[in-house]
Structure formats: structure tokens, C-alpha cells
Design brief:
The protein is mainly alpha-helical and 340 residues long. It contains 13 helices and no strands. Helix content is 84%, strand content 0%.
Length: 340
């Protein structure tokens, strides 16, 4: 009889507690079941408004049940119910395909559009490096060896003949320039990675990398231009280079955004500024990887199939225009909507 007296009060308290709150638990469980079977869209406006309130009420019930040592079955039930509600309220509610679509239609272009100022700086550094190297090599061809590694040049240097240089522009993938193109792609991919990663060092290494990339580009143009093949080389490069170089500039812009956030956090705490900058930079850099993959396809397939200079230049210009429309059109439109 004494044993019955010892356990009766907790049982009685549990029964009263359940009677007082079970209606809310049942309704929350019903809403969660409907969401899990179909989607959150099946809920009415009243149900949507009630869902977070029911969740908080159930959390409170769980806290009371734990503190007062009510029966374990009730505590386990409430824990499971709260976990399901938390996932639906704060977890990933969209499908992977929907999230991927949102990345391409909003996340990626918006992130790159937000880096437009930094991207212009990277473009200036690239052009400045290319112009400087072009003028140096045209004035004194011995500068070429100091600016372009022998492995990258692969014999395309000031000593090469016109016929040899012309042949490399229009031969198949297994020729020397095909090797050079692959080397160039790998080099630009490395430049993109390091330009982003070294942004943490207050931007200076990133700026130097981008400038050096421009130097090598200008030196190569100077070699072909000296033999009267400058436009031919630029057309060959354009078919994949507009995408590839643009990707490198965006990677540099992403690194610059992080570096400037570290050096000049403004009114924010330094860590808050870095986290915000890192979020935008990481999304943009993920897009850079895709751009480099597209450039590889253009270089690997398009350069062999398309041999006319006009067609090559046209494809390169079309790709550049497409990227600009994608970023400046779609990206800035979403950025303005977010600001509004």
C-alpha cells in the first residue's frame, strides 16, 4: 500500500499535466504530419501562425516535464515532437534541386554582382599588367624570359618563326599549343584559387597575383604581335579566355572583399565583417569553379572545332556578354530587390 502511495502523486501530476497541454501537442503533431507527408504549403494561414507558438509551448512543456521528473515515456514523446518541429521550422525545408536552382538564379549572380567594385579593380590590374608587359617585350624581347616561365611558353617566344607561331594557332589538340592551352588553364585555375585564398593577407598578394597574370598575358600577346599574329592569337585566346580570365578576376575580387573586411571592418565588429564578406566571397568562388569548368570545355572542344578567327572571337565575345548579362542583369536585379 505504501508503494502505491509513493507513485500515485507523480502519476496524478502527469495525468493532470497531460490533460492541460495535450491539446496543443496533438495539434502540433497533426500539423507536422501534414507537412512531412506533403509540404508546408498545405497549411492554412492560421496554421502557419500557430506552428511556432505550438512549438514554443511544447518546448516549455518539455522543460517542465524534465524538471519535475514526469514519466520517461512522456519526456521522450515531447523530445521527439520538439525535434520534428525544430527541423520543420529551422531545418532545410526545400529540396536539393530547389536549392540548386536558387543558387543559379539568385545566390551566384547576386554574390558576383555585389563584388562589382572589386572586380573592376582586378580587371584594371589585369589590363595594366598586360599593357606593361606588352610594351616591355616589344621594346626589349629579352624581358619575355623574365615574365613567362619556359614551361608555359613551350617554345612560343620571341625567337620562334612566323610559320611556327601560325601553325600552333590552327593545329589539333595534340600539338604544342594544345599543351600550352592546358597549361594555361591549369595556371589560371591555380591563380584563381590563390587569389581567393590569399585575400586574407590584406589583399596585397591577391593584387600581385592578378597583376602578374596580366604580365604573362601581355608578354604572350607581344610575341605573336611582333610576327603580325596578334589578332590571330587574341581570337584563339578569346574562345575560352574571356570566361577563364573573367573567372580569375572574380576570384581575385572575392579575395579582395575578405581582405578589405579584415583591414577595414567599418562600423561592424571585425569578425562580423569577415563573416559577411566570406559568405559573399564563398558563393562567388563556387561559381568561379563552374566558370573554369565551362572554360575547359570551350578550350578542349571549341578551339578544335572552330578554326576561323572571326568565329573564335565571336564565341569569346558572346560568352563575355552572356556572363555580363547574367551577373549585371539577374544579379543586380536580385540585389536591388533584397535592398528594397
Amino acid at each position: 500500500m505504501s508503494a502505491f502511495v509513493d507513485i500515485a502523486p507523480p502519476l496524478l501530476n502527469a495525468s493532470r499535466f497531460r490533460a492541460a497541454h495535450e491539446q496543443d501537442w496533438t495539434r502540433l503533431e497533426s500539423l507536422l504530419g501534414r507537412i512531412e507527408k506533403r509540404s508546408v504549403r498545405v497549411l492554412s494561414d492560421d496554421d502557419l501562425l500557430a506552428l511556432p507558438l505550438l512549438y514554443r509551448s511544447t518546448l516549455s512543456s518539455l522543460s517542465v516535464a524534465r524538471e519535475t521528473s514526469l514519466d520517461r515515456a512522456l519526456v521522450a514523446y515531447l523530445e521527439q515532437l520538439c525535434a520534428r518541429a525544430y527541423f520543420q521550422l529551422y531545418g532545410v525545408s526545400d529540396s536539393a534541386w530547389r536549392n540548386l536552382g536558387r543558387f543559379f538564379t539568385r545566390g551566384w549572380p547576386t554574390a558576383v554582382a555585389a563584388l562589382w567594385c572589386e572586380t573592376l579593380v582586378m580587371a584594371f590590374l589585369t589590363v595594366a599588367g598586360a599593357v606593361a608587359a606588352y610594351m616591355l617585350v616589344r621594346a626589349d624581347p629579352t624581358w619575355f624570359a623574365s615574365l613567362v616561365p619556359p614551361g608555359m611558353a613551350g617554345g612560343r617566344d620571341p625567337s620562334a618563326s612566323v610559320a611556327a607561331l601560325r601553325a600552333t594557332l590552327y593545329q589539333s589538340k595534340d600539338d604544342g599549343l594544345g599543351v600550352f592551352a592546358s597549361f594555361l588553364f591549369g595556371h589560371n585555375a591555380q591563380i584563381a584559387i590563390f587569389a581567393f585564398a590569399l585575400g586574407f593577407a590584406f589583399v596585397v598578394p591577391t593584387a600581385l597575383l592578378i597583376f602578374y597574370n596580366g604580365l604573362m598575358l601581355g608578354a604572350m600577346v607581344a610575341v605573336f604581335a611582333a610576327k603580325g599574329l596578334g589578332p590571330n592569337f587574341l581570337a584563339w585566346l578569346a574562345i575560352h579566355g574571356t570566361t577563364e580570365l573573367f573567372a580569375v578576376m572574380i576570384a581575385g575580387a572575392a579575395g579582395m572583399r575578405i581582405g578589405t573586411a579584415i583591414a577595414f571592418p567599418g562600423g561592424q565588429e571585425r569578425m562580423e565583417a569577415v563573416v559577411a564578406a566570406g559568405r559573399t566571397a564563398a558563393i562567388a568562388t563556387a561559381g568561379v569553379v563552374l566558370m573554369l569548368a565551362i572554360a575547359a570545355v570551350l578550350e578542349g572542344v571549341g578551339r578544335q572545332v572552330v578554326t576561323g578567327d572571326g568565329a573564335r572571337a565571336g564565341i569569346g565575345a558572346a560568352m563575355l556578354a552572356a556572363w555580363l548579362i547574367y551577373y549585371c542583369g539577374m544579379g543586380r536585379r536580385h540585389a536591388h530587390r533584397s535592398a528594397d
